[in-house]
# Entry
Amino acid sequence: MGEWLKGTPAGGVTAGANIFDFPLPVATLDADALSHNLTTMAGYCASHGVLFAPHGKTTMSPEIVRRQLGHGAWAITAATAWQAAVLASFGVERIILANQVVDRGSLQVLRNLPDVELYCLVDSPEALRLVEPLKPRVLVELGLPGGRTGLRDDAAALALAAEVEAGPATLAGVAAFEGIVAAPTLAGNLELVDGLLHRMAALAAQLPVDDPIVTVGGSAYFDRVVAVLGGGPWRVVLRSGCYVTHDVGAYDELSPFGAAGRGSLRLRDALHVWAPVLSRPEPGLALAGLGRRDVSADAGLPVPRAAARVTALNDQHAYLSIPAGSDLRVGDIIRFGISHPCTTFDKWRVIPVVAADGTVRDLVHTYF
Amino acid sequence: MGEWLKGTPAGGVTAGANIFDFPLPVATLDADALSHNLTTMAGYCASHGVLFAPHGKTTMSPEIVRRQLGHGAWAITAATAWQAAVLASFGVERIILANQVVDRGSLQVLRNLPDVELYCLVDSPEALRLVEPLKPRVLVELGLPGGRTGLRDDAAALALAAEVEAGPATLAGVAAFEGIVAAPTLAGNLELVDGLLHRMAALAAQLPVDDPIVTVGGSAYFDRVVAVLGGGPWRVVLRSGCYVTHDVGAYDELSPFGAAGRGSLRLRDALHVWAPVLSRPEPGLALAGLGRRDVSADAGLPVPRAAARVTALNDQHAYLSIPAGSDLRVGDIIRFGISHPCTTFDKWRVIPVVAADGTVRDLVHTYF
# Structure
């Protein structure tokens, strides 16, 4: 079935292929933007003395993960045991499994991992009991009230760290994820993030561990991690995933390297989906041939590079609001920028990496 | 990479495997419910004298599509040229491509199809010009004002049918899709649907075609198609897709064979996702290990078979609101029902078909 990958021509991709000859819709990675983002983030981490464990769940792609390792990534992050196993099969030798692992099958997957330096999170004695027989390196997870996983109470976190120390696992440090804070304003988010980071620092300083790891930092607030935790008596490990393609939506708005960014560097949106205009059935409306099957919709609708606005998606269609006098025609091809790379990557098993003129330079595969 | 399919154990699935040994999350198909739904819908179509072209886009699974054909499906429906090619590779010999096909690459895919009886939709002279060199069987598409694709104007539809007749393609009938009407009430939806069906009948009656095809009918309102169009001087072809697994959400609410159904038959929800409780970080909150990567969220959140309610999904986590005194524990495994099968199927490359006790009877593969 290799030839039946959505977004590739029947018979596969030949040298010199151009994506305008592909059956649409097709997702593409802009070769230059992808390289720029890989270089930019690697350089930022190196120059600020922080380690980088880019989140593999964003792409689950051997080609991209290997480029991240080639740019000096210290580890790759996974969200599930199954992802950890896939990353190990890509050749990754150090993995942060940034989640609790509690079910029998997932624990067995970890037990079967080849020679990998594995870090796991725990946020309860119950989760510790389940994972500690594997003797992993353990990071105690802190969380925010009203947030996701992670201990809300710092004394309980310290007590859990002591439990880790007393058992067969190895206490390695502190973890959290700050990317899902949702205050009404960006300033409010930054305040919540900084509060969490200060709690991490306080806990890390109390751990009976030499050179602890303090890992936090998605693609939205990693500048705060560097500002608050950089230079401390620990190793800071960022886990950003979405930086690798960036976007024209949520991350472009939130990232320190986005359009309105807090930093001086800029990431470039590298992931696009191309689709034709299928129909102009009434004034002001056009339908394009991409839908929920092809592009993320959970953090904002796709953004056409055309005088049009996406108002809704069905499984295989996008509704475009267009001006009364629009010259958009049936058959016209539109490039869409996306919001939230993770949930666009997982809709494609192969993604061409393209030059500006649409010539395919390379293919990226995904394993979701 | 065959062994690294999400939802299967490392090393693959062996005889007698039980999904409670799989790394979670895992999606499953209830073997009995799946068989029940296949039989129920096939029997309904046969007894009402309508043809059935189940929508292949729901599952894109060779195993399920072949069972649909085995139950007497007249054709299989596709949403894109690429899907049509994949369905042909499954052995499907008659395909309704229920969409416009306008881009060069997709037209080439259709040109390369093996010996398939292909039906295409057109809703504009522009779309006809693009597809007619392939000499397909053409269905003129009607649509509702404010809706998706399809001609709003019946005179224009008749004129387009005449254009088809005058060109190299073969005029075959009329198509529409009624499943996306969105009146404030179910009664309002049914009125809109019936109006569209009467327009289809009027157009079909005027076509210069012996025995025209009139095709419409998703999984929500197919009873109205049978009631309004059944017994006319045409062949009625239903295109339901979601019936095959049904759900506990949108389709259970809308389908004539759902919980509050208008018909006497009942479909059963056959598609589930299983995930463990990862964390209980504060009173009233539990996190489970499934997210947008694993289950649809576009037509309602997953429904746990537990005293809990899903309030939100991240990529890999579900937030569960639980009662103050909940005895849900870290490591407990919960079965989730889903809303909208299409966007759950596309998150899995393999889905075990299981007996009530979790024993794997079979595997279903998907090609999205």
Observations:
- Chain B touches chain A through 75 residues (CB under 8 Å).
- The two ends of chain B are 17 Å apart (CA to CA).
- Chain B has two domains: 4-29+266-365, 55-240.
- The domain at 55-240 of chain B is CATH 3.20.20.10 (TIM Barrel).
